[in-house]
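New to this. Help decode both lines:
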Amino acid sequence: MSAVSNPLPVVLGCDHAAFALKQKVKAHLIERGIEVQDVGTTGETSVDYPDFGVKVAFRVSSGEFERGILMCGTGLGMSMVANKFPHVRAALCNDLFSAIMSRRHNNANILVMGGRVVGEALAAEIVDAWLETAFEGGRHQTRLDKFDSYEEMKKRYEQSR
């Protein structure tokens, strides 16, 4: 495992179901020389996943962080919460191929994993692949531009009501 050159800081959050995995991912990131802001949760006591999904998604949406990682039991709830925020492209990736393609074609800026789905070793591989894969741009950027235009249309619609 090598250090990432010029690593971007990452904001990290989870619920109780993924706390153990978050701790392993956090240690892995720090070992690789990546600065981590951990927004919780801080233990295995039951919490509401949206409270922590919002903390990560807001920081990415606002531009405070370029990348975030979220985890809950399956990853489904966290990905739903995060994708409510403008300019967030949260991708549920419980396998390497999805992690690579979420970056290469979708320029995902929040990685989501299921703490009850992914083991520690695979999670580390997924995180590494996701962090190291570049966005291809080109025709994929055209598609992402449509995402942005849909967000703008939704905002105008909501303001007109």
In short: The CA atoms of residues 54 and 82 lie 6 Å apart. The chain has one domain: 10-136. The helical segments are 19-31, 49-61, 76-82, 96-104, 120-132, 139-160.
